[in-house]
Amino acid sequence: MLGECHRLLAPGGVLEIRIMDAAPVRKTAGPLLRAWIEDRLSLNLEKKFRCSKPCMLFPGWVADAGFELPRVSGENQVMNLPCAYDGTTNDVDAELKVLVGRALWKDIWGAYVEDIPDEPRFWWEVDEIVDECLDRRTVFECGAIFAYKK
């Protein structure tokens, strides 16, 4: 697919890709969220031959397709999106970051989540996981890759 994007893009054009890993940043993830992802998502990704760590792998794939990646630091952007917010603070920006992160996660990974009857569909619907994320300040990394065609 990336090779076809490279073929179709005009010289001097830019391909912008937004990516997010299936699991949060390792040092911020707690055992409940890690277990939920392992139990409800990981096997389904493997069954469909899907990559769970695109933030690590996509830059190499983009370069292999013939695109030029910026060498200037900061050109490819990374944003940390928190998994939970403290509703008692009335911090609208924090709430918005959480909602955007969850919507993006659901859009990318939601179709691969195992649906178990009588259980919450997503990890943010489990109070214990949300509390753990709040305590540990769990974040997902959202990346933007800007790939150029010479």
Largest sheet: number of strands, sense, barrel closure: 3 strands, antiparallel
Number of domains as seen in the coordinates: 1
- Choose one word for the global shape: globular
Number-wise, the strands total: 3
Structural class: alpha+beta
- Average pLDDT score: 93
Q: Spans with pLDDT under 50 lasting ≥5 residues?
A: none
Radius of gyration: 17 Å
Percentage of residues in strands? 15-25%
Protein name: Methyltransferase type 11 domain-containing protein
Overview of the structural elements:
There is one protein chain. With 150 residues, the protein is an alpha+beta fold. It has one domain (17-52, 73-145). Helices cover 42% and strands 15% of the residues. It is built from 5 helices and 3 strands, in the order αβααβααβ. It has helices spanning 2-8, 31-47, 54-64, 92-109, 127-136; strands spanning 14-20, 77-82, 139-148. It has a 3-stranded antiparallel β-sheet with strand order 1-3-2. The longest helix is centred in the last third of the chain and has 18 residues, at 92-109.
